[in-house]
């Protein structure tokens, strides 16, 4: 599987899929633009409005909305669903993969009005697409005085685990280690299999075993999932009776794997709904809807993104430049 260049710095945040429209008379229609998302019930295959979806989710403890990072339709759907869920129940907490747990104090100061947006973006090391993609979510929460929780593992720690392996956590100072879950690498066999297929394929294993480099990369992925799960559960504990709306790359949630699987292991009594993006197909001979139902309790169809490169040499040069410019972490 070929990963988009724009997703590479964000460690396995999405994988693509295709789905055909249902054949029933009330079938969902194709999205008309890059902003358009068509929601369906994943089990019944019937279309829903965002408000209808919110009504169904009104009593759900945790609502996880997967996204393709930077896709306009994903971010617009998240903003609309946030507002629709708030209308159903104003006791809401927003938890976000897009901020790291060691920057919660910066986010809190911004929400309190003590920092300007540019100051927050710089000090919190917000993602480059914050203004275009996540500003509406954070601003709605701020206007309604709702908590916003930085849920992801610190980027430098993730990078160092990816380079040196899970033992790197033992070298962290106590103030950093306490930000991470006690058991940081819970997983499921299905998730490991999916991970290897997504980023390594046949090149990632040898004699049925993960290579050392692949194992370290996988542990870095698990650290993100487990840290997000802990942040969500802490938010539930700190805000009893509140619904959690969690935004994350779809790889962390589809098929109820990743962060969702960790949540189900750690808190099996909570109700969790997974909402997953699926790219609308180009061709007539499409993968049937049945092949995608398991990706989420609800699916939303969006238009595919354009190819970034047609020239393999230019793509190779761009990838080299990208990784050459990435911020290095001191893992010693």
From TrEMBL:
The signal peptide annotation in the UniProt record is 1-20
Q: Which residues form the Haem-binding uptake Tiki superfamily ChaN domain?
A: 54-262
- Please indicate which superkingdom the organism of origin belongs to: Bacteria
**UniProt keyword annotations, A-Z:** Signal
Q: Which Pfam families match?
A: Cofac_haem_bdg
Q: Mind telling me which SUPFAM superfamilies this protein's record contains? A: EreA/ChaN-like
Gene3D superfamilies this protein is in?
3.40.50.11550
- Protein name, UniProt field: Uncharacterized iron-regulated protein
